Amino acid sequence: KQEVTQIPAALSVPEGENLVLNCSFTDSAIYNLQWFRQDPGKGLTSLLLIQSSQREQTSGRLNASLDKSSGRSTLYIAASQPGDSATYLCAVDNNRKLIWGLGTSLAVNP
Amino acid sequence: DTAVSQTPKYLVTQMGNDKSIKCEQNLGHDTMYWYKQDSKKFLKIMFSYNNKELIINETVPNRFSPKSPDKAHLNLHINSLELGDSAVYFCASSQAATEQFFGPGTRLTVL
């Protein structure tokens, strides 16, 4: 049974820092992995999708990597800003079924 | 706007009532989903439809009945609502096994 774990559960950093959020999964037979952002009381915004055959994806200040064999993904946020404050969720696609981590709650302080 | 939309955004109702949540996507996707986010913010898939056919049903009580009248719509009907059904319900869509796009969510409160 696929399980997804995200570490740390919460993170507070000063503005401008580079930071790394971690996601691990127990079953490497995944179709893809998605990183999402959720603001309090809001919906889910897709940030990056990494197909199982890919190693990384980049979008602006965000870079996500995938190591399927070790069951790990990282989301790197460069030069963090207060507007990056949100919960970041990792989800792995097991045949059209997204299995979710509990998220990392990020606070970027001005 | 191309998007996934859900109605209503908020739903407050009494225990025992029956209610429906509607979802529509205009992205031309062939697969739609319902997810539940509980009070601890844990997200879990409930159902998935591909081209109007049910392909995933994750041990959800049979009080929950999804209906897909066409590829662009997936509605969720809930009978005999219970306190534990209080949650945020998200609809999503994708084209086959690719990136999933989510609606804004429906916050259901059962009193």
Structure in words:
The complex is a heterodimer of chains A (110) and B (111). Chain A is mostly beta strands and 110 residues long. Chain A has strands spanning 4-7, 10-14, 19-25, 32-38, 44-51, 56-59, 62-67, 72-77, 86-93, 98-100, 104-109. Chain A is built from no helices and eleven strands. Chain A is globular and about 40 Å long. The model of chain A has no long low-confidence stretch (mean pLDDT 94). Chain B has 111 residues and is mostly beta strands. Chain B has no helices and eleven strands. The chains are: A mainly beta (110), B mainly beta (111). At the A-B interface, β4, β5, β9 and β10 of A face β4, β5, β9 and β10 of B.
Q: Which properties best describe this structure?
A:
heterodimer, A: mainly beta, globular, B: 111 residues, mainly beta, seven-stranded mixed beta sheet
What topology does this entry show?
The complex is a heterodimer of chains A (110) and B (111).
Chain A: E1 4-7, E2 10-14, E3 19-25, E4 32-38, E5 44-51, E6 56-59, E7 62-67, E8 72-77, E9 86-93, E10 98-100, E11 104-109
Parallel strand pairs in A: 2-11
Antiparallel strand pairs in A: 1-3, 3-8, 4-5, 4-9, 6-7, 7-8, 9-10, 9-11
Chain B: E1 4-7, E2 10-13, E3 19-25, E4 31-37, E5 43-50, E6 53-57, E7 64-70, E8 73-78, E9 87-94, E10 101-102, E11 106-110
Quick recap of the structure?
The complex is a heterodimer of chains A (110) and B (111). Chain A has 110 residues and is an all-beta fold.
The amount of helix of chain B comes to under 10%
Low-confidence stretches of chain B: none
Q: What sort of overall outline of chain B do the alpha carbons produce when their principal axes are compared?
A: globular
Count up the helices of chain A: 0
Strand content of chain A: over 45%
Segments of chain A where pLDDT lies below 50 for 5+ residues?
Answer: none
SS-based class of chain A? mainly beta
Largest sheet of chain A: 6 strands, mixed
Can you give the helix content of chain A as a percent range? under 10%
The global form of chain A is: globular
Arithmetic mean of pLDDT of chain B: 92
The proportion of residues in beta strands of chain B is over 45%
